[in-house]
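Recall that a protein's primary structure is simply its ordered list of amino acids. Everything else, from secondary elements to tertiary packing, is in principle encoded there. The following example makes that idea concrete.
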Amino acid sequence: MSLKSRIILLFAFLLFLGIAGDIVHMTLNARSRVEAEGEAMSRVTKDFIETALANMRDSADADENIRRIVRSLGALRHVEVAFARNADSPPSALFTPETHRGAAPVWFAELVRAQKKVTLVPVVVGGKKIGAVLIASRPADEIDEVWLEARNLALTAGLIALAALFGASVMLDRTLRPLQGCAGALGRLRDGDYNVRIKASGSPEFVDLCVKINALAGSLNQLANDNRQLLQRLIEVQEDERKKIAYELHDEFGPHLFALRATATLLGARLGEPSLEPLRQHANALRDQIEALQSHNKNILRQLRPPALDDLGLSAALRILVDDWRATEPGVDVELRMAENLGETNDKTSLALFRLAQEALTNIYRHSKAAHATVTVSVKPSPPEIEVRVEDDGIGIDASKSPGLGLTGMRERVRALGGRFFYGVGENGGGFVAASIPLDGVSTFYGEGSGRRPANRET
């Protein structure tokens, strides 16, 4: 549940408690109010009747005059008046059954339970008591009024509460709007977009929060740039060391191996006499071992620094890499899909993409149990970037687990050039690794909301 919904619910609950409290208070005080109203009206009516009786002088028409007074009081609310010659008769026989003219529910009347009281006014004419006027309170009338007031209060307060909730919702929307911007900015920071900035607005607390998030983004951006430069330097140092080792193996170790093989071949050729056959066999064995060392030396040279990458470029180097894997491991069918508009790339980009394809193919042969692999190289025009994707139909990569050393090395190479690295489950159920590197050398990061992010995991 959102913060806005929680605040609105809390506000609505407090309003409901206030309205309910007023209605409950009114209901609890209804009995005393009804009884007090009945007693007051009965007292006024009693005073009026006593005054009227005191002014009666004609005893012959006393009965008719009393009944006329009683009839004139029939329209009174809250009380009912009746005349009885026999004051000992039960009052219930003299009064009409009480009804709720305001349509108060029965449960409400039962809840109030106001007592009906009867007041007797003796009628004495000529010194002789001829009966009594009975004044009975009618609680139903006052109960109806209390019910109507409670209902109107509930309706009015309910409308006011709805208006207040609507106003609070609008105000909360405007007040909490900066939080949405903060949440979006933090999400972009999580995805690596450290160039995000928030416009500081709202209350002072939100302004301070926006300023701090902007400062955090700036610090992370600077840290990312520093890390990227450090990674580039580390990779450059690593490649320089590899290049030096490759030159040493090629220029120093290689000629010695060649000379040893030539000497062993010449020695075997001169040991042609039958008596020297054992020596000739040893010379041939020595030659074969030297040839194996030369082949192993060439493989090491290709791993350290692919000569074709420096001499022929990325496209040719990838073709040679795929051809070597086809020849070395014929059990896996490797397909190369190269974009026609590949063009030229700088040395760092070419080396990073070549290393990615090299490491990915190595992992496929070692771990994937795949029968088919595809290496795809494509170019995207906007923004200009080159992408290499290696996919297989093997057992796949678990994207939920932390990447190993191979994937980590690929990621660091790509990130050092401001690119993006992905891995996970491919379209055929196997695994895939992919990298996109800007062709203009500009470091760019894209979050989930860019619409350009491939499926699976980005690191």
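Confidence is low (pLDDT under 50) at residues 441-458. Strands lie at 79-84, 118-125, 128-137, 333-338, 372-380, 385-392, 420-425, 431-438, 457-458.
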